[in-house]
Amino acid sequence: MAYFPLPVGRPAVMGILNVTPDSFSDGGRFFEPERAIAHGLELLSQGADLVDVGGVSTRPGSEAASEEEELRRVVPVVAALVEKGVPVSVDTYRPEVARQALRAGACVINDVWALRQEGMAEVCAEAGCSVCLMHMQGEPGTMQAQPCYRDVVAEVRDFLLGRAREVEEQGVARERIWIDPGIGFGKSLEHNLALLRNLDVLVETGYPVLLGASRKAFIGALMDSAPVDQRLEGTLAVHLLAQASGARVIRVHDVREVARAARVAAAVLGAPAFRPSAASTSPA
Ligand code: HH2
């Protein structure tokens, strides 16, 4: 599959697979390739539509691993998952990692730098893959120090539209482009809330919107400082509201719970393609 066709009537659920020693919520758990592959398959069985493989943590304050190390972490896991029929996206900003991951069968490049690295758009254009352009103010090492906007919603929208236009000029097909406000990437609590409250502004651009807020710090802050492994309810609330606003992809750690909730939400929202069939309706 060269690109990822989005489902209609419900958001695609993107399961997070961090093959890193230091990611903010699951760092180290899936660092061994066998464990990573097993977890990717588990995410699929829990209802993920695609699995997002990342080899470099972008948590606030993180330092990037080398390209060689990223390749070593990511490519074998991508190849193994693809071989087992899992649709795979790769969370990277490096063109060489994207190139090798696409060659191994990935169908989406998810880039927190919105394809700004030299050569990245060309690699994606040539492969014909889907791409996710994410907004970030600053860089992971320092982005949470003092995020500052005049109008966060307008600035994020304008940045994403500008990037979409540029990557289209570099050969990426318009229908392959997704956009993402980058929750927590150079944003305060109020910035995150403003973006979530006004997600329709991004949806109205016509590009499919991806939302990734799973277990992030602002959810903990709104849940009496709940630790990272106890933020499920907040994660559900944020992604279901994003779904109601029109998000087409939701990127989460807790795939089983979010996928089931999203299915119910889709029925309530009235998406015809997602009503249970007559045969499967029982009174219970
Ligand atoms: N968030 C993270 C990483 N990649 N990609 C997109 N498109 N949107 C996001 O919001 C996003 C992302 C950070 O979360 P996680 O992968 O769990 O942590 P880490 O960066 O520490 O590996």
Description:
With 284 residues, the chain is of the alpha/beta class. Helices cover 40% and strands 12% of the residues. It has 10 helices and 8 strands. The protein has helices at residues 33-45, 67-83, 95-103, 120-127, 152-169, 189-197, 199-203, 217-222, 232-245, 255-269; strands at 12-18, 50-54, 88-91, 108-111, 130-134, 177-180, 210-211, 249-252. Strands 6-5-4-3-2-1-8-7 form an 8-stranded parallel beta sheet. Strand 5 (130-134), helix 5 and strand 6 form a beta-alpha-beta unit. It is globular and about 40 Å long. The model is unreliable at 277-284 (pLDDT under 50). Bound molecules: 6-hydroxymethylpterin-diphosphate. 6-hydroxymethylpterin-diphosphate binds next to strand 1 and strand 5.
Radius of gyration, whole Å: 18 Å
What's the total count of β strands? 8
Q: What summary fits the major beta sheet? A: 8 strands, parallel
Strand order of the largest sheet: 6-5-4-3-2-1-8-7
Quaternary structure annotation? single chain
Structural class: alpha/beta
Residue runs with pLDDT of under 50 for 5 or more positions: 277-284
Q: Could you tell me the strand content as a percent range?
A: 5-15%
Helicity, as a percent range = 40-55%
Amino- and carboxy-terminal Cα gap: 39 Å
